[in-house]
Predict the 3D structure of the following.
Amino acid sequence: MLNSKKLSKFSEISHGFFNKNGGVSKGIYKSLNCGIGSKDKKINIKKNLKIVKKKIGKISKEIFLVKQNHSNKFIFLSKNKKIKNRSINADAIITEKRKIPIAILTADCVPLLLFDKKRKMIAAIHAGWRGALKGVVHKVIKFMLKKGCNRKNIIVAIGPSITQKNYNVKLDFKNKFIKNHKKNKIFFKNVNKLIYFDLPNYIKSQLKFNKISKIDMINIDTYDRKNNFFSARRSLKLKHDDYGRNISIIMIN
């Protein structure tokens, strides 16, 4: 489990970016696969989620997850709101509830964990290129501000994800971003006639555009085997028929 140095300063919250290690799954899912949508044995995934929950907080409630679909939708869990786990299609969760660990799953996409130290509100965002382009980060921050958060009090940790050197894309992909904004061309580079995209720094630029300055970027590449993270792209290259998911989690204690 990796921690953000900036988020770790606050005893009011617990958080972590988990890699493949420490679970019970076998084969291509070895070992801490938390992907409920994967083809792994459900019993193993449940055991893995329990392992994660125990590390985050022994008296915490069930980890709250959503059905992710690369959208810009989010869900807000207010203090009195009761929503069934994984009953909502969304790619971000915001809450002010205590002892409710909120989490998102990734396998190369960017996980973001947010905390407003004064308002005592947290958020977890799954930002793949689709969700990022659709403005999921902007929508979450806008909602948090509406709920009384302040830009200067929001700390954001950008977790492990695929980095530019391993993110080869096609020209039509690049054109989507340039069409959205001409300045987006700075997040692409050409190497040996191939195009590479810098997803984590594109997302960091969105945070800065929203005037968020307290950003902790964990520069670890999920594609690189030595880092022990699940990677959809690496699994595709190895011709696996599925892949595990990494979990990123945050909770108000």
